[in-house]
Records
---
Amino acid sequence: MTDVIDLIRARQNLLIVPKSDEPPTHKPEILLIGCVDARLSIHKDLGFPDGSALIYRNIAALVSGNTEGDWHEHVSEAAALEFAVNVMKVKHIVVMGHTDCGGIKASLANTLGEKNPISQYLEPLHSVRDEVIAKGGDQKAQASAMEKAAVRNSVVNLVSYPSVADAMREGRIQIHGWVINTGTKVISEMDRETGEFHSMRKDMNKETASDGNGGKKNGGGFIARLLSFGWLPLASEEAATVCMACI
Ligand SMILES: [Zn+2]
């Protein structure tokens, strides 16, 4: 029976090999942080040309953050951000969650036990999960709300890294939060001021994506969390809203 490794070997034999093995210049413009889900093909789904994006994938597109100066506990994440921001000097960082995410489902179900490595890995989402569950709703609504809340959380955690905060303050980088539909590949984009999600497709923007929050604005909490990191010397929420425009 032919399996996927056999197919890869067969494809190698069909490759038309160029005479030169000189690779193109490595000058990506984007760091995309996505989930490991095998149903997503980042370049194909988003239409990236080869060489334009650094891709960092983990379970649930999680950014654990550096909220207590504990980046050494997430050294792979910290190194990826340092490489993207200060070596490759990308212009954008995108956190892209997705629908039907197994990591999000595992966080919501919370049945793996404290010692399970997946449970420990998902610890940065515990408070987010508790907030989503407290708001009620059926399993599907909670999963939808959690997918978006996890992206918001990761975007906030990105800014806890001084290298990212500095780049934002200097206008060198923009941060984006997306959720891609695993089935349709339609992307919902996080509003820079409110933290709510809307379809990236213009003809669908009239349909406000539900976040399982009954349509209530949750921007106040989102902005307050950004402010709580003190990554900009802001005196008011109004000032924060202005600065969110650079995200
Ligand atoms: Zn996933």
---
Amino acid sequence: MTDGPQTKSRTRVQLGQSGIEVSPIGAGTWQWGGRFYWGYGRQYDDNDLARAFSACIEHGINWFDTAELYGRGRSERILGQLVNTSPHATSTPKPLVATKFFPYPWRLHRSSLRRALNASLRRLNAESIDLYQLHFPLRPRGFLYWVDAIADAAEDGLINAIGVSNFSADQTKRAHEALGRRGLVLASNQVAYSLLNRSAEANGVIDACRELDVSVIAYGPLAEGLLTGKYGPGSPPPLLRRLRLARNRLDSLPPLIGLMRDIGSAHNATPSQVALNWLVARGTLPIPGVKSAEQASDNAAAMTWQLCSDEFERLGEATVGFV
Ligand SMILES: NC(=O)c1ccc[n+]([C@@H]2O[C@H](COP(=O)([O-])OP(=O)(O)OC[C@H]3O[C@@H](n4cnc5c(N)ncnc54)[C@H](OP(=O)(O)O)[C@@H]3O)[C@@H](O)[C@H]2O)c1
């Protein structure tokens, strides 16, 4: 994993030691079917998502992150349909799909993971999952129980790479060791990480992943839109997002967005691209959620240029206290 700008941009990077090659930026699909929180069906529809999908592929994004949880399976269904039928995706190689198992408290046995995995495969209309992730290390079952069950499914050929999400540094190490004992690798840990949320640095997750050669997939890389420049104290995001994420952050946005615009202007780039570029320079793989072709093209354009060291440092210094 790198830290700081590279001299040459790369079109594909390896996901941990899995052998799977992904674009430095992927696409998040929580929004695909997320009615309540994101406004799917009211502000945007399946046609917008089909165009967003095509724009991703056209601009070099080759992987999509979903979960059985998103839209209660709807996100997987929409994605499966697009991956299998969109003219932009039927060319080889097919876009890669990462999805997640959610350890609901009533799921207690391996058989429930296998049932959930089979249901995801059906919705995605796939024979195997490129990256299967344990969504959260939630009890009552210990997370190693589920990691082991995912490893069984990988050995049965249903999963190509194994990932976790929302794991601490210690949990990541333990999952990595457990898989290593079976001759398997932990490809990734997906955590919240952005210029407005640097807790993954403070809590040691980034360092632990780097040490183990486990990729960090950065979710919420645009802080749910706050880092795009369109929201601020006078133009807050929709209510639910305001309550969940923006409450204490809106006032600190203007100076940061000002700096991002200043840095972006040297590259003809938007604040979103600056936010994503910083994460790529930190050696992580951001997966911005998209609702439209415009958002997808804008985000993908962050793969075409790079922050210089001075810009990278200034952004880091301006956001050092954000956790
Ligand atoms: N593992 C986990 O526990 C977990 C948790 C959360 C998310 N995730 C994954 O991570 C992905 C990304 O996180 P996220 O979607 O929560 O937040 P995000 O990527 O930080 O923000 C996405 C939102 O920002 C706005 N946006 C995106 N690109 C834009 C652009 N170029 N210009 C202007 N606005 C833009 C859109 O919302 P508006 O247009 O409405 O402003 C979009 O819905 C998710 O889709 C999901 O796949 C995983």
